[in-house]
Each structure stands twice: as C-alpha cells, then as structure tokens.
Automatic annotation (TrEMBL):
Location in or out of the cell: Cytoplasm
Alphabetized UniProt keyword annotations: ATP-binding, Cytoplasm, DNA damage, DNA repair, DNA replication, DNA-binding, Nucleotide-binding, SOS response
Role played: The RecF protein is involved in DNA metabolism; it is required for DNA replication and normal SOS inducibility. RecF binds preferentially to single-stranded, linear DNA. It also seems to bind ATP.
Binding site for ATP: 31-38
UniProt entry tagged with the keyword ATP-binding: yes
Name of a matching Pfam family: SMC_N
Domain RecF/RecN/SMC N-terminal intervals: 4-357
Descriptive protein name: DNA replication and repair protein RecF
Broad class of where this protein is predominantly found: cytoplasm
InterPro entries: DNA-binding_RecF, DNA-binding_RecF_CS, P-loop_NTPase, RecF/RecN/SMC_N, RecF_2
Coiled-coil positions: none
Family in the record: Belongs to the RecF family.
Length: 380
C-alpha cells in the first residue's frame, strides 16, 4: 500500500502552516463549515497533482498576501520511500522535487501518489460532459498501461495539427495524409487501451455497487468515439468534407464516453440524488480496487463530506468497503459522530479537528471514549 506518512502544508487557502501525521488507513477530518477541512484534502491533492481540484486558477489557492503555496510529504510503500515537494507561485510556475531532484512533469507525482477524489464534483461522472468520464477512464489506463501517456501525447499533437489544416482549408496534398495516419494509428491504440481497461473495470464495478446498495440494473457501456463497425482511417476519409466545414475533427477517441444507465435509462435521469452518490462512489471504489489488484498497492482516497446525501446504512456500507481496500483514506465531515461508530476495532482510525485553519489531532483517549459513546467496539 502507498501511504502518506507526513504532510506539511504552507499557505494553501486559510492554512498558514499545518503538519499532518496520518494513519495509514482511515483519517477523519472534522470541523465547522469554512474551517479548512476541504483545504487539507486540497493540499494532499496539490502534492500529488501540482494543482487544485477546486479551482483552475492558482490565485484562490495561495493564501492571501503570500507569493506561493507549498506542500511537502513523505510517501511509503512496500517497494520504496519518497520525499516529495510541490510549490506553485501566483504566476502558476511550479517546482516539483522528488528525493531532492527536480522534475518537470506532474506525471512523476501521479505515479508515486495515485489519488482518487470523491466530492460534489464526482457527480459529473453522471451529469457532466463526456470529457469528465474520459478523464475518469484515462486515470485508470494511465496507471496500468505504461505506453498510454506517450501515445496520448502523440494523438493530441496529431489532432492539433489536423485541426489547424482543416481550419485553414489546407485539405489537399500529403501533409494532411501524414497527420491522418498519425491520428488514426494512435487513436486506435488509445481505444485498445481504454477498451481493455474498461473490460477489467466493469465486473469490479458490478461487485462494488452490489456491496454498497444491492441495486440491480445499473449498467456501464463504453463508446469509443466513432462508428464501432468502421476503421478510424476510413472514418477520417469519409468525414473529411464535414470536418473541413466544421474546422475540426469530429470523430475519434476524443469523443469517447462511458454511458451509465439504470434499467436502460440514463442514471442521472432515473436515480435519486442519494442513489446517484452511491453509483459515483461505486465507480471510484471500483477503480481503486482494480488499481490495487493490478499494482499490488492501493491508492489514496480523498473524500469530502462523506455523510452528505447518504443515510447511516449506506455510510456504513461505504466505510466497510473502504476498510477492505488496502488504501489510505482521508474523509471530511462536520460532525465526527456521523462516522464514529462505523469502523472495525482492528482499523487504525485517527481523527483531526480543524478550526480557523489550525489542525489538531484528537487525543487517543478522547477518540476511544468517542467511539465507545457512539456504540463502536474498541480494543481494551
């Protein structure tokens, strides 16, 4: 299991200087709204991705009046240990250091600290655009197919060049043919990677959703982004005239999608909000389970406001599933009582209270007393 042993946060939102010494399993971060709970999760995400999951701009992330935001962390696994640091200034320039050496690519961080986020934005897997579901799919492909990133970059370059030719009306000659071939070749590889991964993920999702709620009839289907009966090269030739009019490539792996349906109807239109949260949680947990089985170590889960829209029974099922996943988990909530009585006595649970940007770990005796009062069994 990959897990964070130490996290040191400086100048992220209202967090001036915070040090977190987490449990390798379950960590509950509680406090009032606006206290900085989500900022703790954001800081961990920043460490693994060099960006925020809450804002595309860096300015809101950096504490007011400060030049940069910085997070350091120590990550341990059965195979290796890493010291990593990420800093980003108001001009969006970032520095990445891993074991004292500088790196330029955020993919270096993602390989060391694989992260899964469950927050209100996760509903985009049902109600958002196909791009949201492609990003979800490609996260998994990136972590299991070492060729994916290079092929994906070549595909993006080919599409950019092809679209530029289409926009400027340069559709004759050998130049377009070169980029057509490059686009088709890499597009077919991306589709193969995605399809192989999806076929592995689908049965794991079925199992996860059964464990969470026992609902029958939720189905996933993968759509590759062009006619399933046609070769991509042929599609590009047939659609050249329409692509030229539109000024961009209309069909290809950049149009891929995952359809989520419940009894044949789009899940977003047929399930309640609580049921939708179960489905998106099942998607994320299934991805973590598959990651763990293929890589022999788990990922790190960042779960913001877990109790929201889930009754006690479904919270309990979700937490019990998290306990079995060989993953480190960080969960935020307002009232710690909403999660206190759920965990197995053998699970190492740490609780942290956040108030006005300050983080304090609940004392062990206070935590044990809290669990007892909440009705949980604890070790003597």
């Amino acid at each position: 299991m990959s897990s964070l042993q130490t996290v040191k946060v400086t100048d992220i939102r209202n967090l001036v200087s915070v040090t977190l010494l987490p449990s390798p399993t379950i960590n509950i971060i509680h406090g009032a709204n606006g206290s900085g709970k989500t900022s703790i999760l954001e800081a961990i995400y920043f460490l693994g991705m060099a960006r925020s999951f809450r804002s595309l701009r860096i300015k809101p992330v950096v504490r007011n009046g400060q030049p940069a935001a910085t997070v350091f962390g120590k990550v341990a696994s059965e195979k290796a240990n890493w010291s990593i640091g990420v800093s980003r200034d108001l001009e969006s320039n970032f520095r990445i250091q891993i074991n004292g050496e500088s790196y330029k690519l955020t993919s270096s961080l993602a390989s060391i600290l694989p992260l899964q986020v469950i927050n209100p934005d996760t509903f985009r897997l049902l109600e958002g655009s196909p791009k949201d579901r492609r990003q979800f799919l490609d996260w998994g492909v990136f972590h299991v197919e070492h060729r994916f990133l290079d092929v994906w970059k070549r595909l993006q370059k080919a599409m950019k060049q092809r679209n530029a030719l289409l926009r400027h009306g340069k559709i004759s000659g050998s130049l377009l043919e070169v980029w057509d071939q490059e686009f088709a070749q890499n597009g077919k590889l991306i589709d193969e990677f995605r399809k192989k991964y999806f076929d592995l993920l689908n049965p794991v999702f079925d199992k996860a959703i059964q464990n969470l709620c026992g609902v029958e009839g939720v189905q996933l289907t993968y759509q590759r982004g062009w006619d399933k009966e046609s070769d991509l090269s042929d599609v590009l030739i047939r659609s050249l005239s329409r692509d030229s009019e539109a000024g961009y490539t209309q069909w290809g792996p950049h149009r891929a999608d995952i359809r989520v349906r419940y009894k044949g109807v789009a899940a977003v239109d047929s399930l309640s909000r609580g049921q939708q949260k179960i489905v998106v949680c099942a998607l994320k947990l299934a991805q973590g389970m598959l990651f763990s089985s293929l890589n022999n170590h788990g990922c790190v889960y960042l779960i913001d406001d877990l109790p929201s829209e889930l009754d006690f029974q479904h919270r309990q099922r979700l937490c019990q599933l998290l306990e079995t996943m060989n993953s480190q988990v960080f969960i935020t909530c307002v009232e710690k009582d909403s999660l206190g009585s759920i965990w197995s006595p053998n699970t190492e649970v740490k609780m942290f209270h956040v108030e006005h940007g300050t983080l304090i770990e609940d004392a062990a005796e206070d935590l044990e007393q809290h669990l007892r009062s909440a009705g949980a069994a604890v070790l003597p």
